[in-house]
Amino acid sequence: MPAQEPAPSRNDGPRVNHQINVPQVRLVGENGDMIGVVTTREAISMAQEVGLDLVEVSPNATPPVCKILDFGKFK
Fold first, then answer.
1. Is 66 within 8 Å of 55 (Cβ atoms)?
2. pLDDT, tens digit, for every residue of 24-58?
3. Cα–Cα separations (whole angstroms), residue 50 to 14, 19, 46, 47, 65
4. How far apart are alpha carbons 2 and 52 in whole angstroms?
5. Separation CA 3–CA 56 (nearest Å)
6. For 4, which DSSP code?
7. Distance between CA atoms of 63 and 11, rounded to whole angstroms?
8. Is 6 or 69 the better-scoring residue by pLDDT?
9. Which of 36, 60, 65, 68 is surrounded by the fewest CB atoms within 10 Å?
């Protein structure tokens, strides 16, 4: 059987912060500016520095597109 990507721990929304388990993401900043491809660890760090979350907005892209935003407001 081929290995399957683990499902998000929550079925009711996108993966957030440490739920994102890919090596790199295409990052969009909190103001909508395109930052580019960075490591997931670096993207989470950047989000935490400004007190926000890293949210996966396009999981099927290569690499997945993530945005820095307030997940509480996003939901």
1. yes
2. 999 999 999 999 999 999 999 999 999 999 999 99
3. 20, 19, 7, 6, 19
4. 36
5. 22
6. -
7. 21
8. 69
9. 60
Take residue 73 and report the two structure tokens written for it.
Answer: 């407001």
Q: Can you tell me the distance from the alpha carbon of 36 to that of 26, in angstroms, rounded to the nearest whole number?
A: 5
**Average pLDDT value for the chain:** 89
**Structure tokens, 10:** 């929550």
Confidence of residue 11 (pLDDT cuts 50, 70, 90): low
> Phi first, then psi: what are they for 16, rounded to 5°?
-130, 140
